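ASSEMBLY PREDICTION REQUEST
Request ID: AP-0331
Submitted by: J.K., bench scientist
Number of chains: four
Total residues: 1142
Priority: normal
Notes: Please return the full assembly, not individual chains.
Input sequences:
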Amino acid sequence: MEKYYGWGLPIDISTQGPEIDRLIYVVHGLMAALFIGWFAYLVIALIRFRQRPGHAAVYQLNHFKAPTYIEVAVALFEVLLLVGFSFPVLNHVRNVFPDPAKALQVRIVAEQFVWNVHYPGDDGIFGKTNIHLISGTNPVGLDSSDPAAKDDIVMINQFHVPVHKPVIVQLSSKDVIHSFSIPVMRVKQDVIPGQTIPVWFEATKTGNFEIACAQLCGLGHYRMRGFFTVETEDQFHSWLNSMKPPEPAPANVPTAPAMPVASPTPASSGGVTG
Amino acid sequence: MSHDDHSEKLPFWRKYIFSLDHKVIGVQYAVTGLLFLLFGFSLMMLIRWQLAYPGKPMPFLGQFFHPKTMIGGIMLPEFYNQLGAMHGTIMVFLGVVPLAVGGFGNYVVPLQIGAPDMAFPKLNMMSYWSYFLGGVVMFSSFFLPEGSAQSGWTSYAPLSVIASSGQTWWLFGMVLLITSSLLGSANFITTIVQLRADGLSFFRLPFFVWAQFVTSFLLLLAFPPLEAAGVLQLMDRLAGTSFFLPSGLVVAGRVLERSGGGNPLLWQHLFWFLAHPEVYVLILPAMGIVAEVLATNTRKPIYGYKAMVYSVIFLGFMSFIVWAHHMFLTGMGTKMSAFFQITTMIISIPSIVILTALALSLWGGSIRFNTPTLFAIAFLPMFGIGGLTGLPLGLAASDIHLHDTYYVIGHFHYVVAPGTLFALFAGVYHWYPKVTGRKMSEFLGKLHFWPSLVFINCVFMPMFLMGLAGVSRRLWDPTQYAHAQAVQPLNVFISFSAWFLGLAQIPFILNFFGSLLWGKKVDRNPWEATTLEWSALSPPPHGNFNHPPVVYRGPYEYSVPGQKHDFWPQDMKEKN
Amino acid sequence: MSGHAPEAVKKHVKIYVAVFAALATLTVVTVAVSYLHLPLRKAVVVALAIATVKASLVALFFMHLISERKVIFSILALTLIFFLALLTLPFLSS
Amino acid sequence: MSSLIRYISKPHPVTGVTNAKLGTWCFLASEVMLFGGLFSTYVLLRTGASHWPRGSELLNVPLATLNTLILITSSVTMVMSWASLAMKDFPKYRFYMASTILLGLAFLGVKSFEYGSKFSHHHFPSTDPFYAIYFTLTGLHGLHVLGGIIVNTYFLFPGSALWRTEPEQFTGRIECAGLYWHFVDLVWIFLFPVLYLL
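STATUS: Completed
Returned structure:
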């Protein structure tokens, strides 16, 4: 995985990522320019006006024009950042959702400290859920009496998506506030209990990536890590088929094969499984 | 308080413990605040071990901790979360605010306005003891069976509602701290409005007093909503209500037996309605101190005094309508986020004006490079970095990637650590002679300044890189994530820098206590400054001034042409 | 205050009694209106209008705001602005 | 020392107010924000709820009307106690102040009766969001009434010694205590329709 991550921004594999990255670069360019100019001024002022014999302070000074111009320029630049970058990018990300018919629809239900990924199955309809049905083998409380639920697939911490296809994720939480973050997708959204918040993205590259929780959600916040896999359309469908529940026993969610058996990162020796 | 009481006749406990004198209370605040800063810093030292070497037993120190916090020297996640939550709470509410507002405000404001004391001395004392009690409650919560609060200093519901009993103590502690701040701020406003010396009009006030004045309004009007939120969360925790709990929660596999119907975002709104103005509560007094120190040590008036005053008022006003930029990712609509992005960009303008004015004050001066000036000058670029890195966070689009990462940590620490804290250090070195009658050692001061400057940048600068890499905050073990593993060497570097930063504070501690005994004795006005506090004796007696001072001119009349001396005190009628 | 002199205060006392009568009447009115079971929107407007009138009476006469100084008004105006900001909050969360 | 601090009993020549009055208004400003936060919460919970009961369906309106009248009356007696001092009539002050305290206690008595009957019907803050905000708002208001009673009792007995030495300052203090008491009344004026009638 080394090639994906380094000391700067992680690689970007989403269609909307470049817009966000561009804004980050532009802002940092402005910051650098301002800071360097400003620091240079400071150094010059400190050397030139140090206290020394024969040098006295000046009481009255002409009003400086340059700083006012710079301040106005900064203000204008901020307007440009807002109107030219932030507003349109945010509008694109938040309001311009892909056509649901052409997109992959997924529900993700966060809980301490797991991401439950709920695919609607072949019928494209999510089965009914009920919080009173939630159990160890039925993490989202799928109602097996609902015919639409029969082909639903619920995975734990395993999120597979096809490449070059828009994905709409409906985010909700069972317990506390989490934050659904896929750094390589430039996607981050707080997951608020009591609400369902949609996000969308489209992957441009295949590979194995990760979902992080970005909001403190308790003891296991640090290990609320999901596996995010971008595959070709074919690979995705064969994976989805292999995860289908066995026909005779409906609504028996195959959690066993879906469970991440061991995290590939070196396990910490904290010895806490809270 | 009877009318004929004189401090000389008072018993020890009235004079130094339950004192009504603003100077004693100011010192009490400052010393307590400094001790809490040290304590909060120590918590971070522990956290830094866990972050540099996740899950490795802590050498030597580890064996002294209770098994509920560390097992075999290995820090448990619950203890890590406690340290994180309490570091934030202690630094903000028990360290910086009490030192900046309670300490410097109490000691310096009445002196600078030529008043004998605060308007309500008894209220002042109650304010300190309420703060002290709040501190005791916060501190002792570490010794609860389940430890202290562990839901972050922001205490987001529902996590905080279902958290262990430490959170209840946190809330009670906060109620006491809020009470203290409310009493203090009403006192400051009344004092500054009513008790200014004759001739001291508002536009002759030292900038520090202006900063405290605006700060007091922020505290007065922004804290009560948090108190309301605190009461609601206490009800949620103790009376079983569901203000912050929506219906249908399932915690640890069990349906939560609550009525539901609440809203978790309500807490965030009420919290940030306070907590954003609170950021300015942390910054404004620091800016005030820097203005005082720079004017004195450049030997010239500060540049654009009136523009600065208008900016600080505007800043205070705007700080109430930017709060939701902390909540860009909570699913708010784009129109709403556009509004808060605009206000956030607007609020950056007065900050830039003040910072620019302070920087331009150097131009044409005759700058003395003593310790307070070094800290005050360092404040400028450090606060500048803090402010600039706020830009990508204030733009909701770039915030998507940077929100809740180490970038945020780096940003606000640049504002409050090398920013505010450096200004506070400048204030300590600047006013120490007034409080004690002795100067602090310049040698130790510089030994404190230079390593602090270097190491504090080594601590916070790499955090921006970690943030850009997407590393989340508050991770007990960052190496769980591949993207965080890539920057893990930075964590080791930060930790060592932080420990060295700790060592760099030893000269300050030695200097602070040692100078009480060995510092060079000084007269009233060791820095040859103009504001009123320097007309009083060092230390000022009970009642501050022998005669109520009368003010003839503005606060920073340095190097006035045609004068023999390069400073012209505010209360001097004749030429100087 | 326009006058704390005993003669001025005697005049005030008459005003206080009148204000009391008004407050009591308005209380009865607001309760009576509630028994009409108006639709919620109308009921809110009526009840809050009456409450605002009552509150203004208390503030103006009992709290002497009618003859208060500028400094007090400045603080209250500032508070009002932030109070209104606070009341926008429910509409941000929904 | 207090003698050194100016404008304790006489108003400041420019601002026209005493220290205590300005301080009291600052404190009331913070109280406005405190109750503002809670009112906001009420509006948010109510607008967010699928069903919200009318207060009159669940709460005892006649009793609350009585309580409103009690509190209004106490406001009048409070302002009369100040007016008596301004007219240099100390015995009358004591009468009105004592009435204010008794009316305050009567308010709390009625309130605790109301609470008691709610508890006996198993209506607790945890029952639903309506009762949660009802108990929180009225409870906090009740605490404010209690605080006012304590302050007023202090001024009725030990605090009134100041009348003999500093009548002007004492009158000022009663005015400030009055400001607080009227504010508590003012809050109730809004709580009553919001919780009971709407």
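REVIEWER COMMENTS: The domain at 19-197 of chain D is CATH 1.20.120.80 (Four Helix Bundle (Hemerythrin (Met), subunit A)).
SIGN-OFF: pending second reviewer
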